[in-house]
Amino acid sequence: MEEWKEHFDSTKIPKYRVELHIHLDGSVRPETIWEISQRKGIHLASSSADYCSSLVTKQPSNLANFLAPIATYLPVIAGDEEAIERIAFEFCEDAAREHILYAETRYSPHLLSAEGFPPEKVVECINRGLKNGCERFGVDIRSILCSIRGKPGWSKEVVELCQKYRDERVIAMDIAGDTNAVTNTSEEDVEAFQSAYRLGIHRTVHAGEDGPADQVRFALEHLFAERIGHGYHVVDDDALYRRCLDMDVHFEACPHSSLLTGSVTDRTAKHPIVRFAEDRANFSINRDDSTLIQKTLDDDYELLRSFGLNDLHFARANFNAARSAFLPDDEKQTLIDKLMNVYGVPTL
């Protein structure tokens, strides 16, 4: 992409983006959670402001602590048709405010289900919310269905749901939770991902976030992962990292999240995302869980700028995201064309 440096208009960089790793169930407006809890008579805190503040991860910790607040509010939303559709609709509005051209949001249908309200109904509610939101706010949002490690039967059902709703904005599957892929990804999970591969269902995998690089190897070799969620610790294994560079594996990087989850702890060392940028790795810039971080994409870009990245790195990251999106080829090319037009780039 060096050949179009001279055509590059950096003033447009903050305006139009592609985001591939953001959890819908981790990106609910705190005010929405509060309003729903009030409607249901569920006590969360003494005030809306107090509750919003309690959700924010302020200091680096570990992944379990980082995710803990989600367990306090998912029961407020789970099994509630109106609430589930609402959070999907509001996600689209928030994406428009972030100047997002295209995003893939992921969620666990099982975590939002309840007795008498199966995962299938969750998907239908979110599909409606996304459809209505996209039409209303002029954005393009697709969804990825997440399984959770250690939950028997969930991965198989996720594959079935991806297959059933693949023509309704559901475009891929993921597996999240404990990222110790070798010991905690069951044979059942492996079989589900291999089934997804045979069915032509796209696959991304949380791996190498707060655990060793070998998780990334496992995801590529056993789960047939096309993209890696986070993957920071892949740089700890030089041979594997070089292999990923050669294979053009896409890393869904989340700057603020990487620090707050304790996934990257050594502030004196070069951040893995900086390595990705310097080595021209295929990576994108994403928010992960905006409810918990309460940062904008502008904030994530500015954090990376403080690490030494610049506008050209950001442009590459957005083109990386576009060409690594789980879209049909014709729609992917349309998205790339939009970015080329936005950035004033004649060719790639």
UniProtKB/TrEMBL annotation:
Names of the cofactor(s): Zn(2+)
Organism: Argiope bruennichi (Wasp spider)
Keyword Metal-binding recorded: yes
Protein name stated in the entry: adenosine deaminase
Documented EC number(s): 3.5.4.4
Broad class of enzyme this protein falls into: hydrolase
Keyword match Transferase: no
Similarity comment: family membership: Belongs to the metallo-dependent hydrolases superfamily. Adenosine and AMP deaminases family.
GO molecular function: adenosine deaminase activity; metal ion binding
Segments passing through the bilayer: none
Residue ranges annotated for the Adenosine deaminase domain, each copy included: 17-341
UniProt-listed Pfam families: A_deaminase
GO biological processes: adenosine catabolic process; hypoxanthine salvage; inosine biosynthetic process; negative regulation of adenosine receptor signaling pathway
UniProt xrefs under InterPro entries: A_deaminase_dom (IPR001365), Ado/ade_deaminase (IPR006330), Metal_Hydrolase (IPR032466)
A single GO cellular-component term on record: cytosol
